[in-house]
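User: Can you fold this complex?
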Amino acid sequence: MAKSFAELKVLAAKARLGAVIGTYHAKSGHPGGSLSAADIFTYLYFNEMNVNPEKPDWEDRDRFVLSKGHCCPSLYAVLAMKGYFDWKELESLRHVGAMLQGHPDMKSTPGVDMSSGSLGQGVSAACGMALAAKFDNKDYRVYTVLGDGECEEGQVWEAAMFAAHNKLDNLVIFVDQNGLQIDGAVEEVCGIEPLDKKFESFGFEVAKIDGHSFEDIEAALNKAKTVKGKPFAILAKTVKGKGVSFMEDQVGWHGKACNDEEFKLAVKELEDEIARLEAEV
Amino acid sequence: MANTVCKATRESFGMALCEMAKTNKDIVVLDADLAAATKTSIFQKEFPERFRDCGIAEGNMLGVAAGLAASGKIPVAASFAMFSTGRAYEQIRNSVAYPHLNVKIAGSHAGISTGEDGATHQCLEDIALMRTLPGMVVLNPADHYEMMEATKAALKHDGPVYIRLGRLAIDSFNDPDTYEFELGKGITLHEGNDVAVIASGLVVNEARKAVLKLESEGINARLINIHTIKPIDRDIIIKAAKECGQLITVEEHNVIGGLADAVCEVTSSECPVKVTRIGVYDRFGYSGPAWELLEKFGLTETNIAKVIRETVNK
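Assistant: Here's the predicted assembly.
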C-alpha cells in the first residue's frame, strides 16, 4: 500500500539515520551522497517498485541498480526498513564477514539486484535488465541512480545511446545532482552541464526535479510511465549531506565517517527530525 | 575419420551458437560492430530478435551482458579479443566476474595470426587477463570440431566463460566421430615419453605435425592439447612431468600469463621439471600475412620440431 508523503518523510529521515549509523560503525564510507539520494531510494522502494522482500529473486519484480554504488549506506537502511534484512546489520557495514559490503554485492545482500561501485557500470547493467524484459515480453521496470560526477564516465553515454537506440521505455535513470564530487564542485572538476540537453540529445525524455520533494519524484515517475519508445531521465537537484546540518553541501563529507562527537550531533539532529515528522503523520 | 575441414574457429563458434540457440531460447548475442568478423552474424541472421549490436562500445556491451545475465538470460558478448577482454577488462572484472554472472565472452582475432591489421589488433594478453579473474573459465579450442563442442560446453556451463576465437582458417585434426570435449580436461593426442609438448589453440596442429615428423627420427614426444586453460588439467600435466621429465609449452600468446605460466604454476608446486616455452616473448606483433608471422614468431611446425629436437638431444 502506498505511503503518504508524511510517512515517506519519516522513512527517509530514518534512512539518513541508518546511513550515519552504518558509516560511523564502519569508520568509513560515503555519507554525503547517501544523504542526498535518501529520498529517491525511499520513494522507489515504498511507493514505486513492485518488489517482494519475502522473495528478493522473484523474476517479475522491478529492478534497482545503484550505479553510484558508494551511496549504499542509505539504500541498505531502506532495504532493512522494507524487510529484506535486520536493521542491526547496518552496525556491521564494511566489517569482515558482513552481509553489507562497502559497495553493493548482489551475492551477499538480499534485495541488491546488481553488484556495483565502479562508476559508469551500473547503468549498463540496468540497460541489460531492461532489455531482458523486452526479450521476454515482461512488463517489469528498471530503475537506476547515478551520481552527477559519475556522468563524467564515458560508459554512461555509451549506455545512454544504447538505451535510446533500443527504445528502453521501461528504464528510468535518476541523476542525483548534489553538485559535488571528491575533488570539488562537479562544474569545476570537469563540468557536465547542460545535463538535460545532453540526455535529450541522446534520445531521452527528461524531467528536472527537486530530489528532496516527494511530490516532484512522484510526478516524474508517473510521467515516465506515460512515455513510450524512449528511456526516461530524472535530473534530481539535491543537497549533498542533506539532513545533517554540518554535512550539507560540504565536499569534505563525500567519503568520511563521523567521529564520536559528530555522530552524537548527527544522531540528535536526525532523531529530533524524525520525532517532528512523526508528529505530522 | 571424417574429412578434414579448413575453417576459422570464429566460424565454428558462430555455427555452434546457432545450434544451441535452437533449443535454448535464453541464449542472446551481443556484438560491438564486428558481427561479420566474429561470425556472430551467423546467429544474427537466424535469430535477429535475439541479437543486439551495441555499436563500438565494448564497456557498455559487457555491462549490458551482466544485466541480461542477472535477469536470467545467457548472453554472449563478442568482439575482437583485444577489445572484449582488453577495453572491457574492468567491466568484466567488476560487473561479470565479481557477481559470477552467466556471461560468455568471445574474443575473436586473437593472437599474431590476426595478421595484416598489426599490433593494435593482435591480442597476445587476453588469456593472461581472463585467467586472473576468480571463477572465470578460459577456453582456447584448437580446431573446428573442438570449437563447436567447446562453445556448446561454455553455453551449458553456469558462470562466466572466456572463449578465444581465431581469424585464420585452419585445418581440423580432430575426428568428429570420436571427439569428446570435457571442460577442464586436457587431451593426449600422441603418446611418448622423451618430452611432453603441451599446446593450446591454433598451434596444436603445428605441434602435432612436428611430433609426427620427429617420430621418423626416433623421437617419441607426447603431445597434450589443453583446450581449457582455466581450470587447467593438473593431473595430465603432473603425469607428463613425472613420466617425460621435461615439458615444452606452445601458445600463440605472450609467454607471460598464458599457457606457459599456467603449466609452470602446476609443475613448480607439484613436480618441478624444466619447462621450455614457445610463444611470443614479451613483445608486440606487427603487420604481415598470418602464416608468415606465425613462422617469424616460431609458432609453426618447423620451429616447434627444432625446439623438441634440441630439448630431447640435450
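The first helix of chain B runs from residue 9 to 23. The radius of gyration of chain B is 19 Å.
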